[in-house]
Amino acid sequence: MSIHRPWLEVSGLTRSFGAVQALRSVDLTVEKGEMLTLLGPSGSGKSTLLKLIAGFDYPDSGSVVLDGCDVTYASPSSRDIGMVFQNYALFPHLSVFENVAFALRMRKLPRAEIAQKVRDALERVELSKFAERLPRQLSGGQQQRVALARAVVFGPRLLLLDEPFGALDRKLREHMQLEVRRLQRELGLTSVFVTHDQEEALLMSDRIAVVHDGLFAQIGTPAEVYAAPCNAFVAGFVGESNLFKATQGAADTVELEGGARIPGPSARHAVGAGMAVMVRPERVRRLAMGQTADIRMDAKVLEVAYVGETVKYKLRHSNMEMLARWPFEGELLEPGAAVSVGWNRTDMVAVDLQS
Amino acid sequence: MSRTEAAALPSVSPGVPGIQPARRKGPSRLPTLLLGLPALVFLAVFYFIPVALLFSQSVEQGGVEHFRKAVGDDLYVRVLLDTLLIAAYTTVLSLLLGYGVAYVMATTNSKRAGLLILILVLLPFWTSVLVRTYGWMVILGRNGVVNRLLMSAGIIDSPLALINNMLGVVIGMVHVLLPYMIFPLVAVMKRIDPSLVPAAVGLGASPFAAFLRIYLPLSMPGVIAGATLVFVLAVGFYITPALLGGGKVAMMAVLIEQQVRSFLNWPLAAALSVVLLLATLGVFAAVKAVANRTMRWQ
């Protein structure tokens, strides 16, 4: 009988800097071949966690187990972890070839094998022609690919990516995101990816761990995290959302802060408990005369933002403000216009007020 | 200079993307040259012309005779070699002592520690060379602090000869010239991306290998700059060798001064000066050639 063991297992990891608790006993498992994203605002502790996994810092308590070996206090050079740094950290005095060959030279592989592996890695990232260039002679996207080749050429047990796309312009970033994901899948590389960009996280990940204040607010697939955030922080951080503070009522109703009682989402809280209901802006529908919905209200347009294929409207109904996102159909509503909006019970999610 | 130029020019790069445009001759070079003009004029009036006069004076009064003496006479050749040797010792010692200090200055996160080290380096730097040299005489002399301490501790029976020899001269010169090594090193080290060494270690390098293959090569421009500065200054050093050498260590500057003041032999002094200048330029050119080959990435 074999016991299932995750490829990377982080348990009870704690790290403080002076009075600041960067990580408060976090547990995390990553399966072989999985791409897990640590998503959180800056200062949430996600970079600290990455450093502890890479070995550039050591925890106050807890353990990091990689492929069955406890590496909590092992030196980074012995961990066999490939890392792509935020600024790529390419060696400026070494050619592209030598940058990629570095890890292999440190492992004292035979010359011919090094040449072969470097050629293969450069081919994978389509940089074969640039082997003799210096890093500064390459564009940002090319440098990024060198960093990637350098991190995977030695067959690492784990690939770490520390906000690697921050310096690229939008178009290149989208291209690189897909390319990294393709490479990671092809090589079956278990990866931990750090970002503060929620769109990037949704696009790249098998699972997302939302980091907040040194703790995981939620861990789940992109669809779970987006569609069923478990608390107000996740709801607000991943995607846009409308959050209404409320109290859980009986029979799946909720009482909003203003006192209005509406049909609520399927209850997750005890009757009388404080909670919030969340509705995504794209679920707030514009209702024509006679159309019905579980919740229906008249609202006034406050602000209009045209963002291409959709239009974002900020709406107000008595003291409730909300965002709605509707497809652009040739006509913009003006601020001040009156609209009927509504949504159904199933469009709402009950979330905790805070993590 | 080429870097500023590349930035100033519109980056037109036909052909392969990512390659910097080739050096272009154009109107944009003139203002750059004009900026250097005042300093150039100053150097011409106070350096190049006097050197040329010195040279011509030496040739006029005796043709190549003085030069033949300066490079043929055993005594003068010995002194020239000693001078280069002392300068080399001073440079190597300054590098060994200064590298660590510069590294700490460049990489410390503590503002207070950085400031403290800066003051410790600058304070002697701002003090007169003469004062510091006399200071060393007090410390290293026959009855100096070091000898008395060692003797009262019973480690030695008779005083060590710490001054009036090459050792004393080198100690004094290293002390005076150390800041000239440290500051260029710090300037270069501060520009080294601090994530490079962790990146190397993460790729499997031991800390020593990461230093040898990554940090050291990247700090080489600072090493070259500091070493050149210290070497050139050391070759022409006068006060410290004159005082700490106690007349027993002959360096070129001391010899030249003797020729002028004691023997009024201006032409020979001029010839010796020119030989020293050429030797210095030779070392400089050799260093530059090596540096150019190893620092192609710069």
Please tell me about this protein's structure.
The complex is a heterodimer of chains A (355) and B (298). In chain A, helix 2 (96-106) crosses helix 3 (111-124) and helix 4 packs parallel to helix 5 (170-187). Chain A has two domains: 8-227, P-loop containing nucleotide triphosphate hydrolases (Rossmann fold, 3-Layer(aba) Sandwich); 240-351, OB fold (Dihydrolipoamide Acetyltransferase, E2P). In chain A, strand 4 (61-66) and strand 5 form a beta hairpin. Chain A has eight helices and 20 strands. In chain A, the strands form four sheets. Chain A has a six-stranded mixed β-sheet with strand order 6-7-8-3-9-10, sandwiched between helices. Chain A is α+β, with helices and mostly antiparallel strands and 355 residues long. By secondary structure, chain B is an all-alpha fold. Chain B has one domain: MetI-like (MetI-like fold), CATH 1.10.3720.10. The longest helix of chain B is centred in the first third of the chain and has 34 residues, at 74-107. The two termini of chain B are 12 Å apart. Mean pLDDT of chain B is 85; it is low at 1-22. Classes of the chains: A alpha+beta (355), B mainly alpha (298). The A-B interface holds A 54-56, 75-83, 85-87, 89, 91-94, 102-103, 106-107, 133-134, 136-139, 142, 150, 154 and B 17-20, 193, 195-196, 198-206, 209, 213-214, 217-218, 295-297.
Short description:
The complex is a heterodimer of chains A (355) and B (298). Chain A is an alpha+beta fold and 355 residues long. In chain A, 24% of the residues lie in helices and 34% in strands.
Radius of gyration of chain B: 24 Å
Largest interface by Cβ-Cβ < 8 Å: A-B, 33 and 24 residues
Please, how many domains of chain A? 2
Give the C-level CATH assignment of the largest domain in chain A.
Answer: Alpha Beta
- CATH architectural designation of the largest domain in chain A: 3-Layer(aba) Sandwich
Which range does the strand content of chain B fall in? under 5%
The number of distinct β-strands of chain B equals 0
